[in-house]
Every structure is written in C-alpha cells, then in structure tokens.
Design brief:
Elements (H helix, E strand, L loop, with lengths): L4 E4 L2 E4 L3 H6 L6 E6 L2 E6 L8 H6 L3 H5 L6 H5 L3 H4 L14
Antiparallel strand pairs: 1-2, 3-4
C-alpha cells in the first residue's frame, strides 16, 4: 500500500484506512520502532503475559505435577504479576561482586 506523509502541526503523519488498522489489531495507541532505516509500527501498549491464563488452564493437572513443575499456584492467579508495580529489592551495599 502506498500513502502520503502529511504535515500535522509540528510533526508528520501517515493516513491509514480504518480496515487496515483493525485488521492489525490497533486501538488508540501504537509502538513505533526504527530498525535498519525502517519504521516498524505495532499495536500498543504491549501487554506482557497476554494469554498466559488461557495457556496455563489448558495444561492438564498431571503435567503440572510431574518433573517438579511449580505452576499450580501460578495457574490460580496469573494476573497477580500485573496487579501491582514490582520493585527491585533493596540494594545491599556490602555485597562483593
């Protein structure tokens, strides 16, 4: 598809058809990165662990219990990782590396 780059205020924009944006899963935001002189535009913001709950619920119980896998507790609350902001532990100043 070819489109024109248009001046919008102090910046520039690309006019894209609504059908194209919907087909790619875009909402009201996008993530734009530059790689090898190319713009890469993806739907955003990215939601880490999207679909994990469904994937974990699809794992049979006997698989969760074999080989020491510790996924049973995580299966019960996979979204708890995203519920609160995670903080790095306090720095140990006397630690030698």
């Amino acid at each position: 598809m070819h489109t024109k780059i248009q001046k919008i205020g102090e910046g520039f924009g690309l006019l894209l058809p609504k059908d194209l944006l919907e087909a790619c899963g875009f909402g009201s935001e996008a993530v734009v990165t530059v790689q090898n002189n190319c713009l890469i535009v993806t739907p955003g913001p990215h939601q880490p662990r999207l679909g994990w709950a469904e994937a974990l619920s699809a794992i049979p119980d006997e698989v969760l219990r074999q080989d020491g896998l510790q996924l049973e507790a995580f299966r019960e609350s996979p979204e708890s990782w995203d519920a609160t902001e995670w903080q790095w532990p306090a720095e140990k100043r006397d630690e030698k590396i």
